[in-house]
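Quick one: structure tokens for this chain, please?
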Amino acid sequence: MGVQDVLEHLQRLGLSGYEAKAYVALVAAGRPVNGYEVAKRSGVPRSTVYETLGKLVARGAAFELRGASDATDYLPLPPASLLDRMRREFDGSVAVLETALPAVVAEPEQHMIHNLKDGEAMLARAEDVVAGARRDLFLSVWPEETARLGARVHEAAGRGVDVSIMSFGSGADANGSGGALPGNVYEHRYSAPEAVLEDLGYRLIVVVGDRREAVVGGFGADGSAWGIYTADPAVALMAAEYVRQDIALQLLADRVGAAELDRLFATDPGLLRLLGRTPSNH
């Protein structure tokens, strides 16, 4: 991780851009330094460096050292202490907001459905759905997507969420450990994943939490992606039923055999009508 990554993460935790640069400069100096040297090391303008250092001192991320000549040098709060303080403040704010935010939330006039602009947005929203589940999770996923979601699914299973997964792959854990995904995992063999991919033209992802919110989308072979998030319980229920029916079909294929299912799909009038096909002459 480079300095730019460190600066970006410090800003995510509440420091301004100048504050992050000044703090990193103090840490990198390894000794007390004055404002002029902080400006030179950090790129913070000299016109604002003392204001920036004052803000770091006010938040406890730096300390002033006054010498005999009344010159002021600065020392940083050690990184471990700063991060521990930020963690405590963050956890404290979250604890307060868990009670305070629901009290000010108005009931939505309509259930939310919105588009997800790209694959990253879709996977981030899917992570939110998995992290928010408290009762059950239904997932229909491919290895490329479980690589991102696997750790969150493990966390959900660890807090007692009932997990059901239709896996278009071996069911290997997606988080890099090589172990098994948690919960009830069913490998999609009827039809084979490559046949499904050829038929659809994309990898379909369905993630449903507590049958009240869902992410549904697709990933194309060309890197394109489309998807939606919905908190409409009717749509979420339908998405969960899609996964449940796919699992049921796989269980049926395991029980009676793929050949028998193929025969039924080729000859049964009701199935043929649903599939938009005409009866075979054979």
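Confidence is low (pLDDT under 50) at residues 172-178.
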